[in-house]
Amino acid sequence: MEKKISNFGIAFNEQIxxxxxxxxxxxxxxxxxxxxVSVFGAIQEExxxxxxxxxxxxxxxxxxxxxxxxxxxxxxxxxxxxIIGINFGTMGFLIELQxxxxxxxxxxxxxGDYRIEKRMMLQAEHFRGEKSLGCWQVVxxxxxxxxxxxxxxxxxxxxxxxxxxxxxxxxxxxxTPTGSTAYAxxxxxxILPPDIRNIIIVPxxxxxxxxxxxxxxxxxxxxxxxxxxxxxxxxxGHPPVNxxxxxxxxxxxxxxxxxxxRFHDPGFFYRTLNRYLENNPSFPIS
Length: 286
Prior knowledge:
Elements: E1 7-12, H1 19-32, E2 36-42, H2 48-55, E3 59-64, H3 66-76, E4 83-87, E5 97-98, H4 102-110, E6 115-128, E7 131-138, E8 141-146, E9 153-159, E10 162-169, E11 171-175, H5 183-186, E12 198-204, E13 214-217, E14 222-226, E15 231-235, E16 241-243, E17 248-262, H6 268-278
Parallel strand pairs: 1-2, 1-3, 3-4, 4-5
Antiparallel strand pairs: 6-7, 6-17, 8-11, 8-15, 9-10, 9-14, 11-12, 12-13, 14-17, 15-16
């Protein structure tokens, strides 16, 4: 049992046709039950982060797909606000409730009958020499890869300052256990349980280079050095940032965590994964 939540935020993907109407229905249900809905709006709105923090919301309800959940994690992780997702997307790896299940589970939410799942995040920092050019929090993965020029990039990796491997490849992924079922899985990486705390390094299309994924401990500091002039890097699928030859990206565990409200037992992750592996919902067969 966790604490009873009385102050909610509701954020939805405005690109989905009927999601605003269902969000309003949820808001009315919570208010009728005696709770407060202090934030209500599209998750794409620029002011949503300020609204969430200023309202002191105790939880954020997100209606959308995995992309909306990733955005919510970035919005809420620094304040350690837990998130509950309702799936209106295709995959829904991060989401436990389907669109028609919220009425079944929300009485439990209001009574504190749920658990909090804490997931590791990463911090990625871009350096040019000793100068830091930016720092980002990572839910799924940081990818250092080729840009628009269709040829491999030359990369070297270090762990805790010691050389690990050199690559000629399309790129390298440094992922969290959460991200192990995203791009890292598509590139041939291992699937990690979501509640462990490890960093997984996965090369993308390596050419005469190591092709195995490498799992590192939470305390490892990974440095990815770029030796090509046409590389980019991206955090959680965000627009790419150009990176010059000689630059490096340093990746390690973040002090922040993503917090998810869960109703099912931990084995639900594997049951969902098995269902997706048997029938990929992003590739419907008519």
